[in-house]
Amino acid sequence: MKKDNDFSQGPVWRRIMAQAIPLTVAEIVHLLYNVVDRVYIGHLSNTDSMALTGVGLIFPIVSLIAAFTSLFGTGGAPLFAIARGAQEEEKASRIQSNVFVLLVGCSLVLMALCYAFQKPVLYLFGASDASYPYAEAYLTLYLLGTPFTMLATGMNGFINAQGFPRIGMLTTMLGAILNLLLDPLFIFVFKMGVRGAAIATVISQVVSALWVLRFLTGKQALIPLRRDHMKIQLPLLKKILSLGIVGFIMKGTNSLVQIVCNATLQTYGGDLYVGIMTVVNSVREILYLPVSGITSGAQPVIGFNYGAKAYSRVRQGIKFMTIACTAYTAASWIAVLAATRFFVSIFSSDAAMLAAGPHALNIYFFGFVFMAFQSSGQASFQALGDARHAVFFSLFRKVIIVVPLTLLFPRLGFGVDGVFMAEPVSNLLGGLACFITMYLTVYRRMGKAEEAA
Fold this sequence. Notes:
The chain is an all-alpha fold and 453 residues long. The protein has one domain (10-452). The chain is built from 17 helices and no strands. The relative contact order is 0.13.
């Protein structure tokens, strides 16, 4: 095994950051796929905020596609890392190839279902007669990229788990930079508006997927994709799904939360506040990226050392991940408080949105630091294959806390503010519950195992 790909060597924090930095860059660049679309669309002339509102309505569908990608991708990658750490390369290869087949099959089914039920679903998600044409125009073309999106995102984790985070970074950089260049061309030069943004995104997704497949089938991969391992094996499928259900629920519940938020905001505030939620979600996605990069970088390192029974290094990894995420989210919260209007203005020049948006953003990001505890706790559970706890705390924060509060607070007299208040309350309650449980179970258990060894 090459030294650079052996996570049992060198300081744990350095191993995590060697993974996390390129992964964070990759995540930032990947976000350009959708964020750049929103920036350009939000500043289209003669649409007020309606085009941005329409594109925001497809967030639940994008989250649902991401959920199924995580079901297989984040279910297989940690198992792959554990198998690689235990020197079981044959098993690792079968896991990787099975995930590839599952992603391809699922993407085709999802694409067909979304096309079949597109109109009623968008109205269910909070569309109005004014915003639906924009949502329909974008989604119809965006769905064509579903197989490529799922392959690029789902299989990229296996590049990272093999110890090639820079290659994983390039996966998203190539597509996202292409999207950045094509967006103004299709939107403004070809005057295709929302449809142009969707076309640029699909082309970029195709490029990313081809890059991933080229690497995983090439000579540089430590464990390449093998056609003879692509037959689905039920024991592996069960393990992949049992662990991947964590990522599925995390992203699937994102979809549920977005649906409930948009529908409630449509009732209490109308299209303007659905558009404001699009901006709020966009800012959250941007500011959450380093947290995602750190936890994603830590998971293969923690999983590898767990497979190698290096429990001291597992604890070091969890500790560093938690401290880094906490420091960053605290700094992000301060940044939002200091420049709230600026963040809103990135996505819209509409006067009504600039007037109401900053207040909503301040409410939503209150106590953002507690998100670090939720993320660190769930990442630890998932890295060690503890799907039961990871699933529970994802459901606990979003389904048991966020959704009911999103429906309840507006009815208690808080109006649209109540929708944005649900997030900080869930971060506090859900984040602390998740982290404390992880500390009392996983972290302390590793300490006892270390002492026994």
